[in-house]
Amino acid sequence: MEPFRRHQGRMVPLDRANVDTDQIIPKQFLKRIERSGFGPFLFYDWRRNDPDFVLERPEYQGASVLLTGPNFGCGSSREHAPWSLQDAGFKAVIAPSFADIFRTNCLKIGLLPVQLPESSVRRLMELAQEDPALPVTVDLQARTVSAAGFSEPFAMDDFARECLLNGWDDVGLTLRHADAISAYEQHRAAWLPRVPTP
């Protein structure tokens, strides 16, 4: 997992509430066994059926911060939803609220879910609509979001923040104790099963 400390990028306003994971990445694309390659299928049905869908507009191409409505990521717990957002180039999602499992899945891959009051998300959407080239800065170290005179703190669990700042996924957290694990394995009874070492 890549560390996340501070990101500056353009915003895209997806002004919809209760966006579920089947809308983020439809079920027919879940057959892949890799974690990559899902980006082209992000919001597939909306993009295919609405030529004016916000992610299809030229002025928002290359945006890396998604602004959206409350309860983002509800529905099934598919990990493919944050994978597809990250694969499409998004580094952070800002919303008034997230489905718990979706939020957890984001944190496990280094995609930052930022929760701000609905009025604040609305203001950021207005700024993005007024000037699609306007950059926003999401600073995890300072726990702030800022853009064109807008600045607001956001809450983030200390443990989740430390993992993101250091780029520690679940495997990375375990590997921090590799020496202790090896030492333990060396002193176990010979008849017990062993974990092969590289």
Rounded mean pLDDT is 93
The number of distinct structural domains comes to 1
CATH architecture: Alpha-Beta Barrel
CATH homologous superfamily label:
Aconitase, domain 4
Name the CATH class: Alpha Beta
N-to-C order of helices and strands: EHHEHEHEHEEEHHH
Largest sheet: 7 strands, mixed
Helix content: 25-40%
Over the alpha carbons, how many angstroms does the gyration radius reach? 19 Å
Strand content: 15-25%
Count of extended strands: 7
**What low-confidence regions span 5 or more consecutive residues with pLDDT below 50?**
none
Q: Tell me, briefly, the overall form.
A: globular
Instruction: Please list the strands of the largest sheet in the order they lie side by side.
Output: 4-3-2-1-5-6-7
- Decide which structural class fits the backbone: alpha/beta
The CATH topology annotation reads as: Aconitase, domain 4
Number of helices: 8
Q: Could you give the distance between the termini?
A: 21 Å
Task: Describe what you observe in this structure.
- With 198 residues, this protein is of the alpha/beta class.
- It has a single domain, classed as Aconitase, domain 4.
- It has eight helices and seven strands, in the order E-H-H-E-H-E-H-E-H-E-E-E-H-H-H.
- The chain has helices at residues 21-24, 44-49, 80-87, 100-107, 118-130, 158-166, 170-175, 178-186, and strands spanning 6-14, 65-68, 92-95, 112-115, 135-139, 144-147, 150-153.
- A seven-stranded mixed sheet has the order 4-3-2-1-5-6-7.
- Strand 3, helix 4 and strand 4 (112-115) form a beta-alpha-beta unit.
- The mean pLDDT is 93.
